[in-house]
């Protein structure tokens, strides 16, 4: 640490209990009381350096009381600082440092230690040290700014606080890789003006490692919140990037809000790990800090990690922070909900009622903010994207990513027995239909909910199943749904119908490909002429095999249609037993909006095994209808 040496005579001062004595061979003729400490000194050294002490000593001497006593109740830095002031007045060697120079500068101002009372007085010495040493060095400027907190009114009056903040802001906005000296002294080795490392003051020629732009995060986190806010404001005026500012605020918050570190993983670097505090702030202080961080954080999307915002929101709910702060955090998260993970959404319910295990209402509000922002920004609709691109592209639209996230969240909260069907349905329906290219995730969540709530009546189960579109189920999901006994019968019939439509569409497409293949082979054979007779024979054989397979496929499709016709007759009989006024099949057709027509398909799908699988599902559905018929007969 740089210092300035002033005067001599260091052994004359001795402390005895709560009193300091100066032994110079002459008896003390004045007592200066600073707080609980008393200094037994001599008049002349004091009044020759300080205008205030000169006046006070003169006033005390005029009163004529035995012994001259001077009281200094409000001197910056207290007794410890006045000890250094007294030694300076006696000419004792004094070491100025970044830790004491602010106290001494403010005390010298209060005691009027100007050049009128001696050349090179304490005001001049301390001011020169601040300008020439402290403000030119990162660590010294930071330490001096920290000491300003104790005597802030005095430091503000002398503009010391502002000068330190400006110095730090300027250094933080400068690339340390370009100007490694002396700003790299915050924790690294000393460097020469050329940037090479120094060893015992000798340039080694070695170049230091590059510094990242967050090198100052840990240093400024030692400041009080009031000074930290002023420093951040000064940095913003100097054009420091908002993402760097947001990173510093995040680091500062993690240090003073212990709840944010609860889910920190091992991926965070040790250098950026929050400094452990001896005593964590009280809940009230943490609440105030959290509300301040909400005001400090930039509003731009993506500058603050979504996981950190969820941590702030979780902490705010635990501390029962201001509702406006909680609402602001929910809006911030809503702006970038597509960057969240399922773990982030699983926030416990901290309310006293404890209706549900997880805070579903909060997630629904966040989703609402995201959808509102998506409409304002004109987010791309997945409908405008090619189906193949949407299914296979790793870069889905934000609304599609959020829909997938919400479906996963619904599957996680579905086992909660306290989650009401209306709440589940409200959250699931909040996602627009176009946001889900497939409804497999929603089907999985509904299935888990039905499994965890077996007491639901049929009407509630049907209402939940209406959330999904059976036409948007994959082949695997359709296969599972057709055999799912938890689903209402109407939904199973609807799934089978749309599965049959998909089958016919696939077969028709395959037949079209086959015709194109035949035409292209004939075209190629025309060009090839007689020289490719062997290749033509092979193509003919392949075509014959393909046609045989297609004939088998047609037979299977016909069998499937016959089974569907039989199923229709069974349903009609079931309707007559119950005394229905109209055909039950007509009601099913009217509700589902489709009609089954027997027709002969002239194409193939994938393999004969798929047709056998479809035949098995129809048989299983007939078995379920038979059970329903027997039960109805028993009831009648």
Automatic annotation (TrEMBL):
**Record field: compositional bias (Basic residues):** 623-636
What pathway, per the record? Protein modification; protein ubiquitination
Spans of biased composition, class Polar residues?
Answer: 603-613
Residues annotated as domain BTB:
28-98
Q: Is Chaperone a UniProt keyword of this protein? A: no
Keyword line: Ion channel, Ion transport, Transport, Ubl conjugation pathway
Which PROSITE patterns is this protein grouped with? BTB (PS50097), NPH3 (PS51649)
Q: What is this protein called?
A: Voltage dependent potassium channel
């Amino acid at each position: 640490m740089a210092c300035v040496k002033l005067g001599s005579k260091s052994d004359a001062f001795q402390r005895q209990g709560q009193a300091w004595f100066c032994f110079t061979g002459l008896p003390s003729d004045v007592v200066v009381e600073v707080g609980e400490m008393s200094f037994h000194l001599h008049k002349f050294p004091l009044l020759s350096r300080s205008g205030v002490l000169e006046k006070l000593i003169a006033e005390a001497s005029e009163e004529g009381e035995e012994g001259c006593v001077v009281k200094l109740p409000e001197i910056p830095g207290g007794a410890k600082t006045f000890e250094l002031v007294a030694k300076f007045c006696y000419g004792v060697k004094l070491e100025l440092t970044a830790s004491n120079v602010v106290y001494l500068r403010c005390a010298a101002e209060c005691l009027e230690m100007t050049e009128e009372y001696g050349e090179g007085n304490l005001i001049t010495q301390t001011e020169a040290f601040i300008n020439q040493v402290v403000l030119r060095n990162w660590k010294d400027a930071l330490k001096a700014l920290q000491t300003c907190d104790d005597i802030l009114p005095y430091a503000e009056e002398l503009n010391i606080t502002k000068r330190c903040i400006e110095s730090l802001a300027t250094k933080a906005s400068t690339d340390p890789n370009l100007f490694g000296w002396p700003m790299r002294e915050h924790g690294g080795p000393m460097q020469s003006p050329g940037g090479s490392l120094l060893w015992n003051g000798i340039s080694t020629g070695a170049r230091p490692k590059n510094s990242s732009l967050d090198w100052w995060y840990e240093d400024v986190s030692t400041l009080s919140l009031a000074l930290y806010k002023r420093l951040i404001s000064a940095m913003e005026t100097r054009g420091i990037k908002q993402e760097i500012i947001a990173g510093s605020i995040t680091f500062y918050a993690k240090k003073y809000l212990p709840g944010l570190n609860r889910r920190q993983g091992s991926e965070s670097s040790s250098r950026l790990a929050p400094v452990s505090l001896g005593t964590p702030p009280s809940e009230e202080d943490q609440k105030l800090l959290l509300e301040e961080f909400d005001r400090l954080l930039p509003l731009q999307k993506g500058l603050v990690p979504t996981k950190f915002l969820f941590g702030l929101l979780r902490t705010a709910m635990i501390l029962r922070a201001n509702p406006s702060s909680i609402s602001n955090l929910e809006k911030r998260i809503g702006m970038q909900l597509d960057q969240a993970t399922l773990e982030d959404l699983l926030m416990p319910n901290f309310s006293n009622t404890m209706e549900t295990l997880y805070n579903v209402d909060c997630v629904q509000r966040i989703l609402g903010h995201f959808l509102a922002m998506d409409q304002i920004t004109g987010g791309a609709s997945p409908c405008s994207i090619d189906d193949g691109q949407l299914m296979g592209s790793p870069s889905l639209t934000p609304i599609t990513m959020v829909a997938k996230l919400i479906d996963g969240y619904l599957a996680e909260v579905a086992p909660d027995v306290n989650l009401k069907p209306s709440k589940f349905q409200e959250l699931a329906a909040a996602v627009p239909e176009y946001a889900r290219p497939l409804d497999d995730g929603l089907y999985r969540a509904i299935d888990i909910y039905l499994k965890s709530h077996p007491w639901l009546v049929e009407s509630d189960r049907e209402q939940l199943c209406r959330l999904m579109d059976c036409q948007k189920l994959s082949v695997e999901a359709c296969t599972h749904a057709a055999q799912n006994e938890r689903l209402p019968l109407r939904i199973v019939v609807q799934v089978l119908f749309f599965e049959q439509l998909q089958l016919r569409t696939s077969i028709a497409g395959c037949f079209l490909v086959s015709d194109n293949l035949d035409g292209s082979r004939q075209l190629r054979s025309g060009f090839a002429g007689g020289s490719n007779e062997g290749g033509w024979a092979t193509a003919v054989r392949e075509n014959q095999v393909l046609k045989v397979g297609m004939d088998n496929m047609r037979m299977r499709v016909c069998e499937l249609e016959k089974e569907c016709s039989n199923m229709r007759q069974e349903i009609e009989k079931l309707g007559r037993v119950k005394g229905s006024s109209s055909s039950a099949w007509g009601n099913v057709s009217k509700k589902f909006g489709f009609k089954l027509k027997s027709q002969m398909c002239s194409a193939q799908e994938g393999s004969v095994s798929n047709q056998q699988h479809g035949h098995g599902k129809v048989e299983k559905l007939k078995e379920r209808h038979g059970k329903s018929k027997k039960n109805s007969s028993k009831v009648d």
